Amino acid sequence: MTPGARTQAAIELLDQIIDAARENGAAADTLIARYFSTRRYAGSKDRRAVRELVYAAIRRAGEAPESGRAAMVGLARDDDTIAAGFDGSAHGPAPIDDDEPAAKAGTAPAWIGKRFRASEIDPAEAAALVERAPLDLRVNVLKGGSLDLFADLGAEPIPGLPNALRLPSGTSIEASDAFRTGLVEVQDAGSQMVTHAARVEPGMAVIDLCAGAGGKSLALAAMMANQGTILATDTDRGRLSRLPQRAERAGASIIETRLLNPNNESEALADWTGRADVVLVDAPCSGTGTWRRNPEARWRLTPARIERLVDTQRRLLSIAAPLVKPGGALVYIVCSLLDEEGASQVTRFLSGHPGWATEQPMPFGRERGSGRRLTPLHDATDGFFVARLRRPC
């Protein structure tokens, strides 16, 4: 592909991604994969170059651009090399007019920026949210994984985490024997840190209430030396169905899965009332802490959606509390930096649950309300809020 053809491909993809963000359609990665599945003429270098153009344009635009061309024109205003791709060739886009509209540079939509400021996320912290993320791995001790893995690719241990490795952005390990045989799992360092807030031990009974595809369940099983019981639940059949195969690959035999019906979770979990040593609630949230990996996600958010998520988080905490045994712990996690989803949720929970107390959840991050907060700028991780709540005996 010529530079012009690559630029045009990026414009076409950005049009699709912008439309999908407005209509809650497929994610950018999915759309890029579909696009190139029907364009076999594009080689690996072309696909990589187009992908980099697309994500550079997404990261640059805080507000959803009017069009893919506006997004790319904005990028071209900052880079003469990209501007040269608007060459008017047979497969390239028309040259840029001097007065042509361009997407404005920014970190987030203005209304989210106000909420960041209310949550004491300063501009530098916010800007770091859309930088490229490294590839973090959790070494699986259940399979005998070691920190020597991927040394040839530049992997380095992550300070403070006993079984974590970091590789440069863009590194691919999915085809490696170490990944295929379960010696490592892809998991952001921040996700590993907040999972440590569970403080699980071998023999415990643990519930991962919003398990999804099970990344934290697998980490908990390793911390428990594969001894005890982990009940991994979710209302998303597609995501939860991936966990049994992942658990088998990881050698985690103590994980049981249970699909829950929305709004009937308590009934389905009645047999676990007052039994769990730890209930981990990795609640659905705005995902503002994960924009490094999904930068177009900030175009999908609306105030109404956040309001619905806050209601869901509150309901999940009320479902989780009765499952904790006397003296046990409830660990609340969101990958959001907004106080309304984090610190304020915990304050509300404590006001409605007399006798419950907060504990220091982990040594990482910084104090935020009754919990701790991780940010890309301060901790070199995705953004998280975590709190550990102890039920009275």
Which descriptors would you attach to this protein?
alpha/beta, Alpha-Beta Plaits, nine-stranded mixed beta sheet, four-stranded antiparallel beta sheet
Characterization of the model:
The chain is α/β, with parallel strands linked by helices. It folds into 3 domains: 3-90 and 98-106, no CATH class; 135-182, Alpha-Beta Plaits (2-Layer Sandwich), CATH 3.30.70; 189-390, Rossmann fold (3-Layer(aba) Sandwich), CATH 3.40.50. It contains 16 helices and 13 strands. The protein has helices at residues 3-23, 28-37, 44-60, 68-78, 80-83, 110-118, 123-128, 177-180, 189-196, 215-223, 237-240, 243-250, 265-268, 303-320, 343-352, 376-379; strands spanning 135-139, 156-157, 164-167, 184-186, 205-208, 229-234, 255-259, 276-282, 324-334, 357-359, 366-368, 371-374, 384-390. Strands 5, 6, 7, 8, 9, 10, 11, 12 and 13 form a 9-stranded mixed beta sheet that branches. The chain has a 4-stranded antiparallel beta sheet with strand order 2-3-1-4, with no helix packed on it. A hairpin with a 2-residue loop joins strand 11 and strand 12 (371-374). The mean pLDDT is 96.
